[in-house]
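Please study the protein below:
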Amino acid sequence: MKAVIQRVTKASVQVEGQTVGQIESGLLVLLGVAKGDGETDGQYVVKKIRTLRIFSDEQGKMNRSLVDIGGSVLLVSQFTLLGRTANGRRPSFDEVASPDEANRLYGQVAAGLRDLGTHVETGIFAAHMQVELLNDGPVTFVLDSRGIR
């Protein structure tokens, strides 16, 4: 799994002009599921989202986690994170998981975060979405669960 994690003061996602998810302080997480990803990848991503110390403490140092600040997550599926652009001009999506598997694992990540007490809003899987955010910092990280294999 690949995730782009952005620290935000607010974020929202719309589908067909309707807001389907929005948060205040927390993280916007764009999540792509690759072929071969499984439960372990989802658990890794959930743990990292909750525990990365990327929020400022009283001294302005990144020393607090999402859990520490009581923040929320806006989780949005984004298969294009797995697009390969090395050859030609059109991205290749050969590494993307099947829609059924990707949706299942995307749901697992959302459920895993909720089960641990994190407030989670989501987009709609496979829908055309408009995402709006106010990046705080800006602070953005890329997480790849394959780094644990």
